[in-house]
Amino acid sequence: MINYKELDVKIKNIEGFCLSSPYGDGNSFGQPLGLKSIGFVKIESNTGICGYGETYAAIYAPELIEPVVSFFKDYVIGKLISDDDICKKLTSIPFIGRNGLLQSIISAINIALWDLRGKVLELPCHKILNSNGYDKVKVYASSGTAVFSPEKINHDVNQILEKGYLSYKMRVGVQEWAIDLKRVESARSALKKNELMIDAIMGTINPPWSQEQATNFAKNLSGFDIKWLEEPVHPENIKGLQKLCNEKIIPIAAGEAYNGNTEYDLILEKRAVDILQFDATHSGGINFCFNLAKKSNKLGIKNAVHVWGSAIAISANAHLALSLAEIEYLEMPMVSLEITDHMWIQKPQISKGFWKSNDVPGLGIEISDNLRDKYPLKKGSGYRI
């Protein structure tokens, strides 16, 4: 790492806010107002430079972000932006800091600090994290909503191939299983020999599959050359996840629903996944995920970062992946989020299945006052099924 710890720049203010953006065609699964709300943390330094972070928690509870960040002010204001102990002290708040909502928002604070460090040093974050990092990372197109028909899946795959992606993830678990199998068959046919991932989204579907159901469905999928089956049981069903993983029918992926050391250490101890998925906007921040990837890799478990937010979520996880050989895939959400297009200083380049790095300082994003005025938070816009 480049020695950002020598920076003598202090935090002047911290602010949490949410913005609501048009999402997809306005009828996206789980978005009652046709909007998606994204939670942000803005850290202003005493030099006037600002850094931005994102918390995944806001997709589900946007109204909670501003008051929680306000609560953190006394812990953060006046500290040096070079101080990695800021977030450690927040996670050590008894009973409430280790995981859950606070950990997700602490993740955004950590990301904002990295964006600020990059802007001050005039370097992209991944070059500060690892000056000998990488100039590209493999990506997969994350699309295939669970309500698409087999015909729409076919069209969806052809669209992502035209955009330069070579790997595709689709959702299952909402429609009848016989229809889902036809949808998977449609995706495999359109992809030819390219990679196919299946997300069962059992962290959001109620009732979720049992371990026995997941095992049977995994057997049904085994002939489609699936890269991984993701979240095949509810996140609380770690025993079921472990058992399914140990059966070695097809590779099992999970991890986006967890955060903090306690939850991830249990998953790793149980060897409950073949591919561990984490997200810098929720799991614990960039530092946390950097260390988690190394820990997971030492156990022979592969890593892929989860992304389902705005430009900040994409960029933070991309810079994390560019800094580590231990991270194999970067998820790229395909459902259009209008606000994202206005946040990039330089739009990312996707070519032949890879994200290409650039030299824009920090995360390469900005949130102007005009943007905040254009996309104000709409109450009741959180994810609902």
Describe the structure.
There is one protein chain. With 385 residues, this protein is an alpha/beta fold. It is built from 13 helices and 13 strands. An 8-stranded parallel β-barrel has the order 4-5-6-7-8-9-10-11, surrounded by 5 helices. Strands 1-2-3 form a 3-stranded antiparallel sheet. Helix 10 (286-298) links the parallel strand 9 (275-278) and strand 10. The mean pLDDT is 97.
Can you tag this structure with a few keywords?
single chain; 385 residues; alpha/beta; 3-stranded antiparallel sheet; 13 helices; 13 strands; 19% strand; globular
Summary of the model, kept short:
By secondary structure, the protein is of the alpha/beta class. The chain has helices at residues 65-76, 85-91, 101-121, 125-129, 150-162, 177-191, 211-221, 238-247, 260-270, 286-298, 311-322, 338-341, 369-374, and strands at 11-22, 35-45, 50-55, 136-142, 167-171, 195-199, 228-230, 252-254, 275-278, 302-305, 327-333, 349-351, 354-356.
What is the structural class? alpha/beta
Described by strand count, sense and barrel closure, the largest sheet is: 8 strands, parallel, barrel
Helix content: 25-40%
Q: How many helices in DSSP terms?
A: 13
